[in-house]
Amino acid sequence: MNQPYTQPVEEQAPKNGGLALLALAISAFGIGTTEFVPVGLLASIASDLNIGITLAGLIISGYAIGVAVGAPILTALTNRMNRKTLLMALMVVFIGGNLVSALSTSFELLIVARFITAFSHGVFFSIGATIAVQLVPPHKKASAIALMFTGLTVATVTGVPLGTVIGQAFGWRATFFAVAALGVISIIAIVFLIPKDLKQSPPAKFSDMKKLLTNGRLLLGFLITALGYGGTFVAFTYLTPIMQDVTNISPSMISVVLLVYGIAVAIGNAVGGKLANENPAKALFYMFIVHAAVMVLMSFMIPFKVAGLIAIVLMGLLAFMNVPGLQLYIVQLAEKYVPAAVDVASALNIAAFNVGIALGATIGGIVADSIGLVHTPWVGGIMVIIAVILTAISRRLEANEGGAYVQQS
């Protein structure tokens, strides 16, 4: 059979690939901060804008919907743009969106600003993943994606707790101004660290995109992403109210717990990248089993302070562990089935991540309003259990087909 799509990319890999990955991670840090920082600010935003906490949760799910809508469409529309120029343009959108968020005087304007900001997120991570895999040897692809996503995980370690502290001290608007400043730093990193001659994927045709959306294997992969990743957000979206009202953690300790949670996320992301390098589907299957068990047990642990803190840390450890494997698996499937539309496939998977976030956040709000915050973890666990079943099906199909992608000869 023909060589896989990635082979010519690997032959032309830039020598300063490590620095390029660093620039991607810096940008991912800013994007990750703006995505998740409202988790620590929901109460103050709700109070300032005079809305309920569940409605305030739309700030997170609305952002996720913006990513899901914008990622595949804008990635396809910008397919012919120079990768470096596109990354810079995305960060301009990112800065503008956060400035409008900071200046919003109504909930409606804030939602619109978040929705627009999300456009930069979806395209960045879709093309970022395909850039990352061409900067390293074949056996380190998942680790390269994990390194790029390290910026996202570091955002949960430092960006979200710091943003929460800034919001508590100076108001939530100050947090969004600070995040906009991160966008300026990201543009500078892109200018100096990203090479100009990165290889671009062949322009995606409408017929190729149609193949992506009608290919059963890829659709199954997108569904695994949405459910396996999104299950966490049934509880994570309302983590601050859970800690305050269920675990009875004092507001002054919330930032500390978020910091510890973020450290666990960073560790899990790095471990997940290493585990997924050789066989992402196999790694995902076992990650999801452990993840589902932790989410179910969490509902029984969070009413108790010590046990609850342990459960929160374990959730953090597993929350992003599956990300490198999920993204690599979709890229590999696209390389096999629709090699001309790998960037768009990557974008659709970013959309799937955020469909999962929106779905999880929405379900979490319904659960919180109907039967209580304490039940959000086990409901999220059910989503992950479904992902376990679907991953098992995908592995069986892969075995029958002789692997998800063509091995190099």
Structure description:
There is one protein chain. This protein has 409 residues and is mainly alpha-helical. The protein is 79% helix and 0% strand. The chain contains 19 helices and no strands. The protein has helices at 6-11, 17-36, 42-49, 53-56, 58-77, 83-103, 107-132, 141-170, 172-193, 206-214, 216-230, 233-236, 239-246, 254-276, 280-301, 305-319, 323-337, 342-370, 376-401. The longest helix is centred in the middle third of the chain and has 30 residues, at 141-170. 59% of the residues are buried. The model is unreliable at 1-13 and 404-409 (pLDDT under 50).
Q: Helix proportion of residues, in percent?
A: over 70%
Number of strands: 0
Helix and strand succession?
Answer: HHHHHHHHHHHHHHHHHHH
Identify low-pLDDT runs: 1-13, 404-409
**What is the CA-based Rg, rounded?**
20 Å
The average pLDDT is 84
| Global morphology | globular
Based on helices, strands and strand pairing, what is the structural class? mainly alpha
Largest β-sheet summary: none
Beta-strand percentage range: under 5%
Report how far apart the termini are: 9 Å
- Count of alpha and pi helical runs: 19
Question: Which descriptors would you attach to this protein?
Answer:
409 residues, mainly alpha, 0% strand, globular, disordered N terminus, disordered C terminus
In brief, what are we looking at here?
With 409 residues, the chain is mostly helical. It contains 19 helices and no strands.
Topology:
Layout (H helix, E strand, L loop, with lengths): L5 H6 L5 H20 L5 H8 L3 H4 L1 H20 L5 H21 L3 H26 L8 H30 L1 H22 L12 H9 L1 H15 L2 H4 L2 H8 L7 H23 L3 H22 L3 H15 L3 H15 L4 H29 L5 H26 L8
Helix pairs in contact: 2-7, 2-8, 2-9, 5-7, 5-18, 6-7, 6-9, 7-18, 8-9, 8-14, 8-17, 11-17, 11-18, 11-19, 14-16, 14-17, 15-16, 15-17, 15-19, 17-18
